[in-house]
């Protein structure tokens, strides 16, 4: 068997960008918890607008009271965390509006959160928004791409 | 696209060089011109000798006399009168080709060695195969890929890399390696990380899939890559490589900084090493000391015990190069998976629960004393600390300390000086030691927690056993509680605790270890700078609180999730 | 032809380093020098032969030399074989 990977039971998930803006690698996020991949691996976006849409099809696992972070689980079993800005917890939800509830099913493109980009720019450490896969140990592989030609920013392959 | 186990981080972009042992097809060919065959044979012998002499020279300058000695032995095999006369006999009697004759004679020698009981002798069969392979290739006019001097930069593709491969390879020209077999802790992986060359191991069949000259890109951390990638993929990898190098540069600025949390708690980041050669990496990566010097490397891969002088020289070298920084030397820790053929240790049913490490030293104090003498004499040259492995009871520590005291007395009698301020500590890797930490701390100056074994012994899991390796879990509340127990016992006695297992360098676990009050973290040199950066952004107070809460949670999953949330939200 | 009965005294028997010492020494002499153990003959000038004797401490063998300087060879090799080779 060659190292080429195509087992019948594993699933592949293409993850799109949940926010419009400048795409970067997780290692460039100005917070060690994300940049040192302590929470998981992924990408990050510096938003050009305050609008977060679902990057995958799946369900909503968790939304923080302070509305600046949301956890999703894709149909393939990949768990994603979208954390709007850095140290945004201090805003205590001011300027954030949530459009879904825990347990809701979502499709790619569904509106999740609207937020005041200017306010975050003003009061938080950074607007950079990490998009992190939190169950890396269940993945066989994760590929990332920042190339404009690719619709996806991450490609996750699950084990089994 | 190919995928394997990410063994050493970094991004490699370049042309492949496949380093492969061709299955030499040697059928019995009858020949007419025996003279010509004999001449070919002797020419091949000469050529092989010349090649080996060159390699030996290279090895001597780059690696020292010791490593070069292997090639000395290979040359002797080529000059062996038995080998030569047996091949010549065969040529005359059977009228076969020189290659076939050589193969037959070699195989007979190889089988003799492989049949020997002595483990050391069995390994000599590998030497004969190695030299024999070279001789046959020269005889058949096949190219020998010599990785000790490469003309271009390459990504090396091989089945596996042996210690002599990694020792002799032309490092300046190797951009990365990919191997068919191996895991994160296999020799190739460890060497790659030490040499800071990106590598992926365990890519089955890669030596067949990739051809020399193919353009390869790969990510050594993620463990995947592409053969002859398209523009888009190449762009992504070039960006990745750029980012990786920039991140490394950024981290270097932390090299000479202290390791201190946001709220001012200082801890020490040290490194685990196996030989004096590893010291270079420690200094380059800003290690504040050596938390574990695995002295058993001095005892391995040789046919006899290292003398007191040999040991003294090695210890002295490391101590001098670290200057005032602490160097913790662990006394001989072999048995189980680390064998020493010349000790003739009995085969055991349960080597990990058997006659090993300090148990051997206490049962054979003559061996122990040689090491202790070398350590004490070397102590004058730096900041030496001694650590005993595999302690399970107070009795063992007292016995070991007793022998240490005897050795000191002996040196006093001989008028040989040693430092009067050597700290002595023990590894906490056996659960019983963790439980009686309060009693043990009275006998020593410090503890160092060996988490790899502590986790295995506490949860009764062999981490290599695929069926149950998922049970090897550092976040298991039992492990975290044991760690807390050990740290608390030591702190109550006013003494410090370090950790030299893999956990210490794991970014995911550093926060909770900070919260539990760990004083020293010893890890591989390459992990130091990232750890320093992480600790610099943590608050000890916050982590202390998080640790307390986490230890009340029932499962590893919940603990992981709790820590993650506490850190991010 | 000269011969001598010898007993290996080296702790670790005849391993690679001692073996190469024996071979180097044997090659200095013109005589044919062999070790006889269990009715097998091992050529002292061949490293492969010496290693394959797989000799341990305490083993007894017969050392035999034939030729010009056989006597000197027996003396030198015999002493070497019975010495503490690892030192």
Could you characterize the architecture of this molecule?
The complex is a heterotrimer of chains A (160), B (569) and C (87). Chain A has 2 helices and 13 strands, in the order E-E-H-E-E-E-E-E-E-E-E-H-E-E-E. Chain A is mostly beta strands and 160 residues long. Chain A has a single domain, classed as Glucose Permease (Domain IIA) (Distorted Sandwich), CATH 2.70.70. Chain A is globular. Chain B has 569 residues and is of the alpha/beta class. Chain B folds into 3 domains: 119 residues, Phosphohistidine domain (Glucose Oxidase, domain 1), CATH 3.50.30; 107 residues, Orthogonal Bundle (Enzyme I, Chain A, domain 2); 316 residues, TIM Barrel, CATH 3.20.20.60. An 8-stranded mixed β-sheet of chain B has the order 1-8-7-3-4-5-6-2. In chain B, helix 1 packs across helix 5, helix 4 packs antiparallel against helix 5 and helix 11 runs parallel beside helix 13. Chain C has a 4-stranded antiparallel β-sheet. In chain C, strand 2 and strand 3 form a beta hairpin. The chains are: A mainly beta (160), B alpha/beta (569), C alpha+beta (87).
End-to-end distance of chain A = 17 Å
Q: What's the CATH class of chain C, please?
A: Alpha Beta
- Please, what is the CATH homologous superfamily of chain C? HPr-like
How are helices and strands ordered from N to C of chain A?
A: EEHEEEEEEEEHEEE
Number of helices in the DSSP assignment of chain C = 3
Count of beta strands of chain C: 4
Shape of chain C, please?
Answer: globular
Proper CATH architecture of chain C: 2-Layer Sandwich
What would you give as the CATH superfamily of chain A? Answer: Glucose Permease (Domain IIA)
CATH class of chain A: Mainly Beta
Spans of chain C of 5+ residues with little confidence (pLDDT < 50)? none
Overall geometry of chain A: globular
CATH topology of chain C: Histidine-containing Protein, Chain: A
What proportion of the residues of chain A is helical, as a percent range? under 10%
Strand order of the largest sheet of chain C: 1-4-2-3
Oligomer: heterotrimer
Count of the separate structural domains of chain C: 1
Structural class of chain A: mainly beta
CATH architecture of chain A: Distorted Sandwich
